[in-house]
Each structure stands twice: as C-alpha cells, then as structure tokens.
Amino acid sequence: MIFDEISYWENYAFGQAWEKAFAFLKSLSPEAEEKEYPIDGDDIFARVMSYETKPREEADLEAHMKYVDIQTVLSGSEGMEWAPTPQPELKGPYDEDNDIMFFHRSPNPPGRIIVQPGLFAAFFPQDAHMPQLIAAGDKPERVKKVVIKIRRSLLK
C-alpha cells in the first residue's frame, strides 16, 4: 500500500501506466461527471462515484488480483483500513470475473488512513482494503471519489 500526497506521485517509478493514471487524476475536478472513464482500454480505467460513508461493521474488506487500485476523494473525506492479505481470513473464493475477493474484518487492523482531497492510496494485490468508512466522528459523510484501476502487469 502507498498513502501519499498526489503531488508526490512521481516518487514511485512504476512506468507509463502509472503516469497515465496520474495525468488523468490531475485533470479531474470535484465537478467531474460520475461515470466510468476509459484511460487505456481495459488496461487502465477510472470510476467516479458518490456515496455516503458508513460504519465499519457495514463495510467490506476486499482485495484484487488483476488490477491495482488508486483511490482518492474529490470532495469529502473517507476512512480506509488496510491489512496484508495473508492476515485476514478469506470469506469466500476469488471472483475472477469481477476481480475481487472478500475477507473477514480484523478486530485490530494494522492500518487506518483518512483520505482527503489531495491525498491518494494505492492498493496492490497483497493489500486487503476497506474503503467507504466514516472518517471522523460517528456521522456518515457524502464523498465524491475516483478509483483508477491499472492492470498490475503494466506496472514496472
């Protein structure tokens, strides 16, 4: 997992696919239309969406094998938890068609971050992550978010 400021994306030398993803990310504003954006066919694409954050007990811990996620918010703030995939127990089999597997929640996750505009989190196949969490206090917050998916084989 990487958690950093978007302005420091170049500190991670993952090649041209990484560069394309951040060029797209830097072009977005909070007014971006909610939809899926093709960046490089099925190899790199983005989804812009809005939703209410939720309590931890309503969120899912997930990981992906084919794609790396770059996640940030365009407005609002969102809590996310992280755990290395060998640690939490798998809930069921890997869904290859949707590139997702779910894990049981860990009572004491190794990491928790709060993503705000200007910050990003990158999750690799070994990173189980739980997005959509209430970031501060106990009240849900409306967030507008972008998730960029990069086929992991494209990263150096």
Short description:
The protein has 156 residues and is mostly beta strands.
What key phrases describe this protein's structure?
156 residues; three-stranded antiparallel β-sheet; single chain; Jelly Rolls; six-stranded antiparallel β-sheet
Task: Report on this structure.
The chain is mostly beta strands and about 160 residues long. The chain has one domain (about 1-155): YhcH/YjgK/YiaL (Jelly Rolls, Sandwich). Helices cover about 10% and strands about 45% of the residues. It has 1 helix and 11 strands. The chain has one helix spanning about 15-25, and strands at about 1-5, 35-40, 45-50, 60-65, 65-75, 80-85, 100-105, 110-115, 120-125, 125-135, 140-150. The strands form 3 sheets. Strands 1-9-5-11-3-2 form a 6-stranded antiparallel sheet. Strand 2 (about 35-40) and strand 3 form a beta hairpin. The longest helix has 12 residues, at about 15-25. The protein starts with a strand and ends in a 5-residue tail after the last strand.
